[in-house]
Amino acid sequence: MSTDLSPSSDSFPFGQDVVWTPDPDVVADSNLRRFMDRHDLSDLSALRTRAASDVAWFWDAVLDDLDIEFYDPYDQIVDLSGGIERPTWCVNGKLNIVHNLLDKWQGTPVEDRAALRWEGEDGTTETLTYGELHRRVCRCANALRELGLGTGDRIGLYMPMTPEIVIAFLAIAKIGGVLLPLFSGYGVGALVTRLQGAEAKALFTADGFARRGRPIDMKETADEAVDQCPSVEHVIVRRHLGRNDPPMTSGRDHFWDHFMAGHDPEARTARTNAEDAVMIIYTSGTTGPPKGTVHTHCGFPIKGAQDMYHPMDLKPGETMYWMSDMGWMMGPWLVFGTLTVGATMVLYDGAPDHPDPGRLWRLVDDHEVTHLGVSPTLIRALKTHGDAPVEASDRSSLRAIGSTGSPWDPESWLWCFETVLGGEKPILNYSGGTEIAGGILCGNVLEPLKPAAFSGPVPGMDADVVDEDGTPVREEVGELVLRAPWIGMTRGFWGDDDRYHDAYWDRLDDVWVHGDFAAVDEDGLWYILGRSDDTINVAGKRLGPAEIEALLNAHEAVAESAAIGVPHDVKGSEIVAFVVLEPNHDETAALREALMQGVVDEMGKPLKPREILFADALPKTRNAKVMRRVIRAAYLGDELGDTSSLEDPSTVDAIQEAR
Question: Across the strands, what pairs with 374?
Fold first, then answer.
């Protein structure tokens, strides 16, 4: 492996200087410092070492530190008799996470604290206290039960980021249902794949939402998808755009207002097992259909809350706004984590630079955001507008900026650090995944930072960087791996457990191979340098090439195709697809446009390819595996690397000559 994945130069990430050091007063008052003092640990190195060597001790201590309440206590925190690939957590414990998110705060001072602050693109705002959110969730839970929905039923969430999506989210978990979050920008095909895969029984949606003042329909897309999903018996529709009512299917569709009306503001919370599924959230891999990662009541929510509480140092009463959609893992992560901690979440339903590039910074001021989560992609876009939109805001409420979604380049990181944070507060770089339930690596308030760096592994994540043989490496690029289980790890893929093993555990014995290139520098700071597999990351939205290829291959004119991710200055990556046509079909502009439109219709405009090119052949191995790595290198004009497994080396020319 080499460092040619570097975002800026051959020397990056090595040889960078420390630009931020922790404030001793912040360190002394941090959640992590108090946790370490409680357990007689001198520093983070000692904590990471003990957490890695005694997994049971650590996660038992985390549950205690987060004050997680169980209906029935667990017999043991983790059972590893099935191996580290398939641990059982909180054995025989009874836990519904909604008890810890809402129920336990009722009758306490937290009940009157803001749980959720919302702002729409048009400037409309709404605030829900923990008490009001609890009452609305109870009404929604009672309404769901009236429809006959309950424990184990999978229910989709295909809605804009409004308070109603959080209410529905929590109500589904409260009745013992299983959340199925869906990206609000998905097209019909992406919805069908996920609704069918999870055998969803109901779907929450909306008439639509506005972006940059332009209405975008959702109900029409939802209808087309649900028509192909016979398991979906109910569709609950929130009127959000305020236009004419969308068409409704009698007996199946219910307007939100009618659905909620008349229901009691108190509802019992289902006494679920700690290891009962609470969410199936899909993530894309390099081959096959999207993977439905399964998460439990004592898994994803605990890991998300620990990441917020420990490395990010979010305290009760503070406010976090992490820009995301509920269909990407950071949406559920925001809900689970803030409410567990007793903090406030902010939702914004709109474009972060509309009507001008100062909108994001005004949101920070108006909602007194202490922790702002962005993507490097967004910062690169906002940087093009210069410093003035930032300097027009106050931003004094900010304690830190978090970032996830794609690797940083040092220039954009430094602009954010110096212009937005005044060179005084940390950027908490954060990287993990949907199947992780949060972060493997994260910045923190206790350790120094360099541009684009992570302080190190999140406590409890036994991370390493290794070469192709699994040998640890430092000061060179290798594979990011994990050597011990953690409470948030996916419990497998819905309906495809063997694929879970193949995806992460097949390369090295008892080692999770995550699929990221990483490095640890001479001072022990960590870096993520991009994907080591074929997964494409478009502005933080991960998808597998197989999804795009399946759409292209469905066209009668297409014999086969290959999709790759290529660099983009703002989005991080864009999709480029290569198509080999069937005999007797001509390469025409009309065909290219039809293929492009087919991808947009099914996947949504945010995932529109940069271009679709016609090729005479695709590079493949002798066992017919398409070599996307070689295709990408040929397209970009990079070194091809090892091509010894190519069945026909001349196919590289076909990519270079594609038109």
Answer: 403
**Per-residue exposure over 584-612, b if at least 16 CB sit within 10 Å of its own CB, e if not:** eeeeeeebbeebbebbbebbbebbebeeb
Please give the order of strands across the beta sheet that includes 234-238. 253-255, 234-238, 202-206, 154-157, 178-181, 277-283, 291-296
pLDDT at residue 216 is higher than 70: yes
| Choice among 23-27, 405-409, 623-627 with the minimum mean pLDDT | 623-627
Alpha-carbon gap, residue 55 to 298, rounded angstroms: 15
- Please write the tens of the pLDDT for every residue from 172-214: 999 999 999 999 989 898 899 999 999 999 999 999 999 888 9
Q: What pLDDT does 3 receive?
A: 29
User: Dihedral (C-alpha) 160, 373, 439, 127: value to the nearest 10 degrees?
Assistant: -50
Using CB atoms within 10 A of its CB, is residue 78 exposed (0-12), middle (13-18) or buried (19+)?
Answer: buried
Alpha-carbon distance of 380 to 54, in angstroms, equals 41
Neighbours of 118 (CB within 10 A): 21
Q: Single out the residue of 35, 84, 86 nearest to residue 62, CA to CA.
A: 35
Q: Give CB contacts under 8 A, 24+ apart, made by 542-545.
A: 542/283, 542/284, 542/433, 542/434, 543/284, 543/290, 543/603, 543/607, 544/284, 544/285, 544/286, 544/287, 544/288, 544/290, 545/286, 545/628
How many CB atoms lie under 10 A from the CB of residue 73?
12
Mean pLDDT, residues 45-66: 97
The residue ranges of DSSP E strands in 297-370, in sequence order, are 319-322, 344-349
Scanning 385-484, the segments in alpha helix (DSSP H) are: 388-391, 410-415
For residues 390-404, b (16+ Cβ closer than 10 Å) or e, as one string? beebebebbbbbbbb
C-alpha–C-alpha distance, residues 35 and 59, integer Å: 12
Q: Point out which residues pair with 616 in neighbouring strands.
A: none
Q: Which helix (H) or strand (E) holds 515?
A: strand 512-520
451-467: b (≥16 Cβ within 10 Å) or e: bbbbbbbbbbbbbbbbe
Give the C-alpha separation, 82 to 72, whole Å.
Answer: 23
What count of Cα atoms within 13 Å lies in the side-chain half-sphere of residue 496?
Answer: 15
| pLDDT tens digits for range 98-131 | 999 999 999 999 999 999 999 999 999 999 999 9
pLDDT in tens, 279-333: 999 986 555 678 899 999 999 999 999 999 999 999 999 999 999 999 989 999 9
DSSP string of 350-411, one letter each residue = S-TTSSSTTHHHHHHHHTT-SEEEE-HHHHHHHHTT-SHHHHTS--TT-SEEEE-SS---HH
